[in-house]
Structure formats: C-alpha cells, structure tokens
Design a protein that fits this description.
The structure holds two protein chains of two kinds. Chain A has helices at residues 7-22, 25-34, 77-83, 90-95, 105-115, 118-128, and strands spanning 37-43, 47-52, 59-62, 71-76, 99-102. Chain A has a five-stranded mixed sheet with strand order 3-2-1-4-5. By secondary structure, chain A is of the alpha+beta class. Chain B has three domains: 7-209, Aldehyde ferredoxin oxidoreductase, N-terminal domain (Aldehyde Ferredoxin Oxidoreductase,  A, domain 1, 4-Layer Sandwich), CATH 3.60.9; 220-257 and 262-420, Aldehyde Ferredoxin Oxidoreductase Protein, subunit A, domain 2 (Orthogonal Bundle), CATH 1.10.569; 442-624, Aldehyde Ferredoxin Oxidoreductase Protein, subunit A, domain 3, CATH 1.10.599.10. Chain B is globular and about 60 Å long. In chain B, the strands form four sheets. A six-stranded mixed sheet of chain B has the order 2-1-6-3-4-5, with helices on both faces. The longest helix of chain B is centred in the last third of the chain and has 21 residues, at 537-557. By secondary structure, chain B is of the alpha+beta class. The A-B interface holds A 86-87, 89-96, 101, 105-106, 108-110, 112-113, 116, 119 and B 237-238, 240-241, 244-245, 249, 252-253, 255-257, 273-274, 277-279, 467-471, 482, 484, 516, 579.
C-alpha cells in the first residue's frame, strides 16, 4: 500500500517542504549558488517537483515536465519521504536503482552538502504542519 | 591456461638462490590466484616451524598477482602481498593497484615468494628471464619517490617508463611496524606493516620489466563482455563519482549516514566537514586524475600545494581514508595539510590510516593531560592544529622525539603512555580501524572484529555490500533488503561477504571500487573467459571460503583467539547525537552467530572437523594436534 493516499496529499506534504527549503537561507543560498534546475520525479503517487535555482530566488513548481532541467532524480514517494529524514542509504538506493539520477554527477554530489540541514527540518515540518502521521522515522 | 604467466619466483635472500617454479594447472584451478596462492604457499613454508617473529628471517613474504592482473579490462590491475605482520603479530596482508602486478606478469611471473634475509641492502631486478639480486646501497636511506626515480634512471628506464618499481621508504628501513610498500609513488600496500618485513630482510625494492603478454583463453568472449559492460559503467553513478571526484566523493555521501569518524570517533557530524569534501579538493589541491593499468575508471587523484607551510610537489593526492584519518579524525579542516601529511607518508612509506589515527589518539591523550608539550618536544598536539599534525607525521617518519613513540602504532604507544590511554584506542588486533563507523552499519563491527588482519573494511565484501555499493543477490545471504543500524542477519552477511570476497578481491583480484558494478555473473564469466576454466559461483564460494579459513587459521596459529575478536571501547560507545545517535552494534550476538556459522570453538579457532571438511588437514593438525 502506498505511503501517501493520493497525489494531492503527497503534493501538500512534499511540495510544502520544498517551499520551506526555498525560504530557508542556509539551504536556498547554496542551491542558488549552484544555478541548477533540478526535477524530482516521484512515483506511487506520481508527482514532479521542479526546483529552479537559476534565478535570484528559488522557485518551486509542481508538475512542470517541460522546463529543461540539468539534473533529474527519479524515485518512489516512499523513498523520497525516507530520504528527507536522512534515512536513505544513498549509495544503496542508487546501486539498486531505487533512486535514478540523470545529469552530471559532480553537480548532483554538490547538492548533498547543501541539503544536509533539511534532514533535521523535515520531521519538525511534518509535526508543525499537520502531517504528524507521516513522522515515522 | 589463460591469465597466468605460468611461473612463481622463489627468492631466498639469505643464500641468494633464485628458483623459478612452474605453476601447476591443478594448483591454479584450486587456489585461483592472489592470496589464494599466497596463503597456501605461506602455510606450506611455515608449517614445520610456525613460531617466529614477524621481523625474523624465518618469516616468508608472498607477493601474488591474480589471473586477471594485466588483462585489458577495467579495475583488474591489483595484486596482493602477505606475511606475518610486525604491527599486529597476526596474519598481515595488503592489496594494491597500480602497474607493478601487470608488469610482473608480463615479465613471466605470477608471483614472488621471499624467504630469509640479506645481510646488506639489496633489490630484486626482474626483466623477463633475467632475475638478479642486486646491491641497493645507493638507494638505502632514500625516500620512496627518490628511490623510484633513481632506480628507473639508473636502469635507463626513465624514458621508456614501462618498468615498474615497488619500494619501501625510510620507515620500512627503520622497521616502523606500519611501514608500507609503494609502487609508482602512489599505489600503496599500506596496511599491517609489510614494508617493515622487507626492511627486516634488507630488501629495498623490486624492479619488474616485461615484454610478454597476458594471454586470454577466450578472447572473443572477453571482448563481448567488455562491450556488454560499457553501458553498465557509463550509467553507474558511483563510477561516475569516482571518476569525477575520486574516493574523496565519499566525504559527501558518508556524512549523511554517520559513516565518517570525527574527532577520534567521538562525533559523527561536523560543521566543517565540507572543507574536506570533493568540491573543496577540486578547488584547492587537485591537479589531475591518475589510474591503474588498463583501468578507465581513473579514480586516483594527483595533487599539489605550491606555497606555504604545507607545500608539496605535484604527486599522488590523498584518498578518502587519508582525508578522514588526518582530517576529520583530528578535527583538521585543512586539505592542504592533509595533502602534505599524505605526501610525507608516501615518501617515508607509511600507512596513512594507522599514522593519522595514531595522531588522533595522541591528540586525545594530550587533551586529557596524559602527555604534554614536555613529551612532544614543544608541539601542541591539539584538535585541528594542522601544523602540529604535519610536524608529528614527519617526526613519526624520522622516528624523532615523540614521533618514535607514535611510530610503534597507537596500541603500543598506549602501553608506553600508560594511565587510561587505552580508552582512546580504536584498534582491533592492534590495527587501527579504517574510516567507516560500525555504529552506522553494525556488520562493519563484526567485519572488523573477525578480520584475520585486524580492523579492516576490505577483508571481505561486507563494507561495499552493507554500505550499498555492491548488490549481489545471487550470493546466499546477500539477497536482503538491508535495514540500517541493526545487527540482524549481519553474521550471515559477513560470512557470505567473506566467501565471495575472497574469490573477488583476494584471488581473482578485482578492484573493490572499479568492479563494484559487476554482478556475480559478470565476475565469474570474466575469470572463466580469461583462464578458460568453467567455474560456477558455488565452486568459487567454496574456494573463497577455504581461503578465508586459511587466513583466519594463520592468525590463530600466530595466537589470535576469541578475546581478540572484539571492538575497542570507543567504537562501542554510542554517540549522543548525529545520524547514529544511540546506535551500537550488538557484538555479543553477532559474534555468537558468526562463530556458529563458521564452526569456531569457544577460543575462536575453527574446529578440526570444519578444517578437515575444507580440505585443510595441515592447518587442522597445527591448530589441534
């Protein structure tokens, strides 16, 4: 059974978190410095989140499949949810193709230090925004 | 037989005799190569007289290639060395890349067995059929880089640049127990003090030059496999990361799960970790990539610091283990100083893991007042003091002042310092733990505890399997979905990783990094295509298992017992925060399960029955009478 009951719920949970990250300077500033456009493609339920860091402000766009992204990360919603707790063994997920990354790997690796503070933010965000039922890790 | 040169060199340094023994096909089939050959030969040499010091002439030394060494495929350039370790007193070994193994094979030899000891410094000259013991007096005292350059120059080889040198440095000459052997300046047989064994034999170097070719039994099949793997390599993100950033890429990945030890294993997160990361590496000290023989992965780095207190000339750059040992372990955010420490270790010929970890240990002793500036000759050994860390590295290499104490490794240094210095140790069987935290992956803890050579993440494939880099579901016991930070099933995972790992890393000698993309089918096919054999996975697991028991048995023979199969207190102390908060491996449970799986008695020795079942009667007799 899918972790999130439908795409709308998933969008509220994860989309909201992405918007929080976009408004958090310690994360956003580093991502903006990268000038990257990253698309996260989720399945079960299906959702796409585009993080556009190419401008002056980080833009989060839901279900944009057209903008040219430098990096594209594909994974299930469950893996994505676990990832933002910092609980995914990234190496294992990539080896077993639970996560698939397309794009220049040096750029992908550069994202990791930038998003590290988010792992502590996510559980707090879930509790504070009425998503405590998903605070399972 | 494809893949094999067909001869092993036996060199006795006492008498000066050199013998070329043919490699029997049955022996090759049974023991595959690498330390499959090496442990069997070593055991046969010592079984009449197994009681000797690691630095005595009675300690043989084996240097072996595998059937794949020198073949034109990615990630199969490696070769192995083994002997009784002067650091631990148990079985010691090291696995190394570069170019020497291929060149030795092309000269016509699958390996070299060294016995006895020379009275004067010598080097072994190998050029095809010509094998000579030559005077090494002009090179004795020179560092690794100068020795390599001088020997190649003197042999008229510097322009041809195809002969290869493996050498020890001043640390090995002076019998530092963690002295290393180094090929081409940056390919290091680092762990367990194999350089000191050569030092005790007054063997300075081996030069190998060969014009032969490594024959492949089924070249068309191998060519097809190479073509089939092209896409696998192109799509694999870990390979891409290794190519782009080298092993330093692990600094960004490992920190997420708490894998990287920080402040002598007291922390698992640090706000300055990015200063040691691959991006900073690229921006500061990196000058280029290097590779091993025929390997397109190119994970080795070249580095340089042009000016300042950490200046070093362009040369091999630090790998992840070195960055962590001299960097995060010492709370030292200066990559330049880590590069300098790496350069010093390479020149002196010392294991960077032991050296860096021993300095981190000493810093903690200093912090706690067990040693002071009176002991260190005025050097303030404090966390993050980059200058002090580099200075102490040099003093260890020269065995000067307090450096002479630390040059014995942290376990012996702790005994000398006394008081509660042992509380700060991170050794198993006297070998300092590598830079992967068992509190983040409990199976690592068991792997370190039972590894025949001491704390080691390469003694089996447990680290890449549990760490996620390799996926081997065809191996029984490795088809799990791994739940993090649990001790469940880790005994079986370790045993299975050892069985396959012995074939993979120790006998065929695949590189654990560049070959991690391979399936078991790819690996078995490659060995069969090269050798012409018809191994099955089941047979290779059985052969690998036996090699593991030989290594374990050798350590038992040298005195290792159940009480040595344990983690130090520091690695069994849970951290109060960070990604591994509260996590500690359940060593009692994992050891109990592992002993049961492996048929060990309460003393940690394989039973007579299990050894006889594995067709190891000599080992059974030596251990049980």
């Amino acid at each position: 059974m899918a972790l999130f009951k439908d795409a709308e719920t998933f969008e509220k949970v994860l989309g909201g978190f992405f918007r929080l990250m976009a408004d958090t300077p310690v994360i956003a500033d580093k991502l903006l410095a990268s000038k990257m456009i990253i698309r996260f493609k989720y399945s079960d339920p299906d959702l796409a989140i585009l993080a556009d860091c190419s401008g002056d402000k980080m833009k989060i766009v839901i279900n944009d499949h057209d903008t040219k992204a430098l990096v594209e990360m594909s994974m299930s919603a469950e893996i994505a949810h676990k990832f933002w707790f910092g609980k995914v063994n990234l190496t294992m997920a990539l080896t077993r193709r639970q996560m698939v990354a397309k794009g220049p790997i040096p750029k992908v690796l550069k994202l990791l230090p930038a998003i590290k503070p988010s792992y502590a933010m996510y559980p707090k965000y879930l509790d504070e925004n009425g998503f405590s039922e998903y605070n399972i890790w | 037989m494809g893949g094999y040169a067909g001869q092993i060199l036996y060199v006795d340094l006492t008498s000066g005799s050199i013998e070329k023994k043919p490699l029997a096909p049955e022996f090759a089939r049974e023991y595959i190569g690498g330390l499959g050959f090496g442990t069997k030969i070593y055991l046969d040499l010592i079984h009449d007289k197994p009681d000797f010091d690691a630095l005595s002439p009675d300690n043989p030394f084996v240097l072996m290639t595998g059937p794949l060494t020198g073949v034109n495929m990615h990630a199969v350039a490696r070769w192995c060395v083994g002997s009784k370790s002067p650091l631990t007193g148990f079985w010691g070994e090291s696995n190394v890349g570069g170019f020497f193994g291929a060149r030795l094979k092309m000269a016509g030899y699958d390996g070299i067995v060294l016995t006895g000891a020379s009275e004067k410094p010598v080097y072994l000259f190998i050029e095809n059929e010509t094998v000579e013991i030559r005077d090494a007096a002009p090179y004795w005292g020179k560092d690794v880089y100068d020795t390599t350059d001088a020997l190649l120059s003197d042999l008229g080889d510097e322009k041809k640049a195809s002969g290869q040198v493996v050498t020890l440095g001043p640390a090995g000459e002076n019998l530092v127990p963690f002295a290393s052997l180094i090929n081409d300046k940056g390919h290091v047989a680092g762990r367990t003090g194999m350089g000191a064994v050569w030092g005790s034999k007054k063997l300075k170097a081996i030069y190998a030059q060969g014009k032969g070719k490594v024959e492949v039994a089924r070249p068309e099949a191998l060519k097809k496999l190479r073509a089939d793997l092209k896409g696998t390599y192109a799509e694999n993100i870990t390979i891409e990361a290794l190519c782009a950033f080298g092993t330093a890429s692990h600094m960004d990945v490992g920190i997420v799960g708490g894998d990287i030890p920080i402040k002598n294993w007291q922390m698992s997160d640090w706000d300055q970790i990015d200063d040691l990361g691959p991006v900073k590496y690229g921006e500061s000290i990196l000058t280029g990539n290097k590779t091993c023989f025929a390997c397109g992965v190119g994970c080795k780095r070249e580095a340089e610091v042009k000016e300042g207190p950490f200046r070093f000339a362009k040369g091999p750059g630090p790998e992840y283990e070195t960055i962590a040992s001299f960097g995060s372990m010492c709370l030292n955010p200066s990559l330049e100083s880590v590069g300098k420490a790496n350069d010093l270790c390479n020149r002196f010929g010392m294991d960077t893991i032991t050296c860096g970890a021993t300095i981190a240990f000493a810093i903690e002793c200093f912090e706690n007042g067990l040693i002071s500036e009176a002991d260190t000759g005025g050097i303030a050994l404090t966390w993050g003091n980059s200058e002090a860390i580099v200075k102490m590295t040099e003093m260890i290499g020269k065995q000067e002042g307090f450096g002479a104490v630390l040059a014995q490794g942290s376990a012996r240094a702790a005994k000398k310092i006394g008081k509660n210095a042992a509380d700060f140790l991170t050794t198993v069987k006297g070998l300092e733990a590598p830079m992967h935290d068992p509190r983040s992956a409990h199976g690592y803890g068991l792997a370190y505890a039972v590894s025949p050579r001491g704390a080691c993440h390469m003694a089996s494939l447990n680290y890449p399997v549990e760490g996620g880099g390799m996926y081997l579901p065809e191996v029984p016991g490795l088809d799990n979905e791994f739940v993090e930070m649990t001790s469940d099933d880790r005994a079986l995972v370790n045993a299975a990783s050892q069985d396959f790992g012995m074939f993979f890393s120790s006998c065929a000698i695949f590189c654990n990094l560049g070959s991690m993309v391979l399936t078991t089918g790819n690996a078995v096919d490659m060995v069969n295509h090269v050798t012409g054999a018809d191994y099955t996975l089941e047979e290779l697991l059985r052969l690998g298992r036996r090699v593991w028991y030989m290594k374990r048995g050798l350590s038992n023979l040298f005195g290792a017992r159940a009480e040595d199969d344990c983690l130090p207190k520091r690695l069994m102390t849970p951290l109060a925060d960070g990604p591994t908060e509260g996590s500690v491996p359940d060593m009692d449970r994992m050891l109990k399960e592992f002993y049961q799986i492996r048929g060990f008695n309460e003393q940690g020795v394989p039973t007579k029955e299990i050894l006889e079942e594995l067709d190891l009667p000599k080992l059974a007799q030596l251990l049980h009478g």
